[in-house]
Amino acid sequence: MELEEVSDAIWLAEGEMVSFYGFPHPTRSVVVRFDNGDLWIWSPIKPSEGLLEEVERLGRVAHLVSPNKIHHLYLQYWKARFPGAHVWGPMSTIKKRRDLEFREPLSDISPLEWQADLDQAWFRGSAAWDEVVFLHRPSRTVIVADLIQNFSLRFLREHWSWWRRPLAKLDGITSDNARAPLPWRLSFINRASAREARDKVLGWNCERIIMAHGEWQRSNGHVFIARSLDWLGH
Description:
Elements (H helix, E strand, L loop, with lengths): L2 E5 L2 E5 L3 E3 L2 E3 L2 E6 L4 E5 L6 H10 L1 E6 L9 H7 L4 E3 L2 H6 L21 E6 L7 E6 L4 E4 L8 H7 L5 H7 L10 H5 L5 H11 L5 E4 L9 H8 L6
Parallel strand pairs: 6-7, 7-8, 11-12
Antiparallel strand pairs: 1-2, 2-5, 3-4, 5-6, 9-10, 10-11
């Protein structure tokens, strides 16, 4: 089995390791099934035939979602397999992937197609990066790409060379201090809009946090995310 059931109507899939400026990062995708049987695929990972077949058994793939301009690498493969699926992303992704046809840019307001199941918050104000964060209301699960990275000591020992490991601590992406990487935090010149998104997220009734990179939080999600976003200040 390549899909792990998190709760009713939500699953995750673990992907391959990718290099981000020479630093190994694990990848993860989330699958949500709506009441009508449509599937929403967040941050599609490199697909295997086994994974695609499992997904097909769950329902009809209707939405392929890039939460930011970094999480786009495998959209074309999923679109080729599921040509009827809509492709979504913020404008930053759309500008980067002009080879794909997207729906309207994602923002703070959920599209009609998933308003009943998903809320979203758009973190912007950075000179280099933005991200749309989601809440799956039925399972009380927040879904985050790079806004929070949470690497365990075990992972770092297995995959990062000895001289790279202290950098993870300094960067603020370890399990005792999970946040966005320091350069990205510093890139938020205008934090007012990001704080609005943060306040929206803190108003969500969440139990767990699934992020693309690192250990995901199975309980006490509200406390976890409040701590992880405290760098935005007041």
